[in-house]
Design goal:
7-stranded mixed sheet; alpha/beta; two-stranded antiparallel ribbon
């Protein structure tokens, strides 16, 4: 499939009876330069397993095929799904699944393709309304993925890579850092899509690493979410429904942390230190 200009892609989709669906956040990437940059930063090796979430009409899929990848493409939209086999008529590189990524058995499927001691990568233009749920599902799979390269809204990308002390830093930043080292790769202007969204986007690279260690991951992430619910308040106030204030003050003192500190000032390692000391004393 050639890389379409906006008018040509529109004609292609109309010819096949397809209109982009707002409910599915369908904004199709059509900028050939951006597609090439995504593939370049992905550093794809021959026959490397790639999970592509929501390939749409397949512009990025075609580039992944040219890079000699083995692509597991999961497309929910049946109309778009039926157009994708044209990209790999030999059926040697493209493995198609008409499914919702939130229900798709990612781990089971990937393990059936991966060779021993090998990991896959995720490359995806994520639906904006499902960015957080999808990443919450796949980030813990760091035993099968080495890298996740995703397109998200630019302001969301800046939250992903925010540093402690910045206004963008939040509980989801902490979540991502628990599993990965996030990097802001480059911005993608809204006119690189058809139809053009109302905001610019960006590519973020998440280099996965072994999960950090806490006594209870579920409670740790609940702890950080609670801390940021009232981010302008001091940490001891934010967590007062989970732990006695006097204990929080003592723990902060034991760690030589300012008792007046606010959550956005803490690194993930500081959050873990505080959590581990407070964890046995949770109020339930």
């Amino acid at each position: 499939m050639p890389l379409y200009r906006p008018s040509e892609l529109k004609e292609f989709l109309i010819l096949n009876g397809i209109n982009p669906k707002k409910a599915l956040s369908q904004n199709f990437l059509i900028d050939g330069n951006v597609l090439k940059k995504i593939v370049d930063i992905s550093k794809i090796e021959k026959n490397e397993i790639i999970l592509e979430i929501g390939p749409g009409p397949g512009a990025l899929t075609e580039q992944l095929i040219e890079a000699k990848a083995q692509i597991i493409a999961v497309e929910k939209d049946e109309e778009l799904f039926r157009l994708l086999p044209r990209l790999d008529e030999s059926n040697k590189q493209l493995h198609l699944f008409n499914d919702d990524i939130m229900r798709f058995p990612i781990e089971k499927t990937l393990l059936s393709f991966l060779q021993k001691d090998k990991k896959a990568k995720v490359i995806a233009n994520l639906p904006y309304h499902l960015t957080t749920p999808i990443l919450e599902k796949i980030m813990p799979m760091n035993h099968i993925f080495s890298k996740i390269i995703v397109m998200v809204q630019d302001e969301v990308a800046r939250r992903f890579v925010a540093q402690p002390g910045s206004p963008e830093y939040g509980s989801f930043t902490v979540f991502l850092n628990y599993y990965s080292n996030p990097h802001y790769a480059f911005q993608v202007k809204r006119n690189s899509f058809f139809p053009a969204p109302k905001v610019d986007s960006a590519i973020v690279v998440l280099d996965l690493h072994p999960s950090l260690k806490v006594s209870d991951e579920h409670k740790f992430f609940e702890f950080t979410r609670r801390a940021f619910q009232t981010r302008r308040k001091m940490l001891k106030k934010s967590l007062s429904e989970l732990y006695p204030k006097e204990l929080i003050t003592k723990v902060l003192g034991d760690l030589s942390i300012n008792p007046l500190i606010r959550p956005e000032e803490l690194s993930i390692h500081s959050f873990i230190e505080i959590f581990e000391l407070l964890y046995p004393h949770r109020i339930d």
